[in-house]
C-alpha cells in the first residue's frame, strides 16, 4: 500500500516536474537573463558573454525541475499514505488539501517573510539570517496547517462547510500579520522586473503542486476506480447523524 502510494507520487512528480522545468526554461530563464543584462547595462557599458549557453541552461532547468518534482512526488506519496485518514474531503479533495498544505509549508508561508527576489537583488538580511527565518517559517507553516486541519474537523462535526472553512483559515491570520514585521526590502533590478519574476516563481510553484495533486489523483483513480469520495460521504453522513 505504501509502495503503491509512493509509486503514484513519483509518477505524478515526474509529470509535474517536466511541466515545471519547461516553465523554467521557457519563461523564467529568459527573465533571469534579461535581469542580468539589465544589471550589466546599469553598471557597465558592455555586457559580458554568458558563461553557459541558453540551450545548456534550458536542459539543466528541465532536469532540475524533474528532480524537484520527483522529490516532492515521493514525499507527497508517503505523506498521502500516512495522512489520508485525517485529511478532509473525498479522493480529489484529499490530494488537493495535502498539496495546499505542502505549498504553504515549503513555499507560501516562508515567502511571506522572504519573497522570491530577482537575480542581482540585494537582500535586506544576511544569508544565515535568511536561512534561519526560512526554516522557522516552514516549521510555523507546518504547525499552522495542522491546526487548520484540527479546526476544520472540529467545526465540521456539527456546523456547515462555510463555518468549517472559516475556522480552518483562522490559524493563518496571525502569520500574515506577523510577516509585516519582517524586513523584506531589496535593491537591484527595476521594480517591474522584480515583480514579474516574483509572480512567475509563485505561479510556477502553485502550478507544480496543483499538477502534482491532480496527476496523483488520476493515477489513484486509474488503479482503484472505486476510491471516489469515500471520505466525503463519511463526513456528510456523520454531519447528518449529528444534526
Structural account:
The chain has one domain (2-242). It has helices at residues 2-43, 54-83, 91-113, 127-156, 161-169, 173-178, 191-223, 230-242. It is mainly alpha-helical and 243 residues long. The chain crosses the membrane at residues 12-32, 52-83, 95-113, 133-152, 164-184, 196-219. Keywords: Membrane, Transmembrane, Transmembrane helix. Pfam families: CbtA. InterPro entries: CbtA_put (IPR012666).
Brief description of this entry?
InterPro entries: CbtA_put (IPR012666). This protein is an all-alpha fold.
Number of strands: 0
Question: What's the number of structural domains?
Answer: 1
Q: What's the end-to-end separation, in Å?
A: 35 Å
Give average pLDDT, whole number. Answer: 82
User: What share of residues is helical?
Assistant: over 70%
The rounded Rg comes to: 21 Å
Tell me the number of helical segments per DSSP (H or I, 4 or more residues long): 8
Organism: Natronoarchaeum mannanilyticum
Transmembrane segments: 12-32, 52-83, 95-113, 133-152, 164-184, 196-219
Keywords: Membrane, Transmembrane, Transmembrane helix
Pfam family, one: CbtA
Topology, element by element:
Blueprint: H1 2-43, H2 54-83, H3 91-113, H4 127-156, H5 161-169, H6 173-178, H7 191-223, H8 230-242
Keywords: Membrane, Transmembrane, Transmembrane helix
Protein name: Cobalt transporter subunit (CbtA)
Transmembrane segments: 12-32, 52-83, 95-113, 133-152, 164-184, 196-219
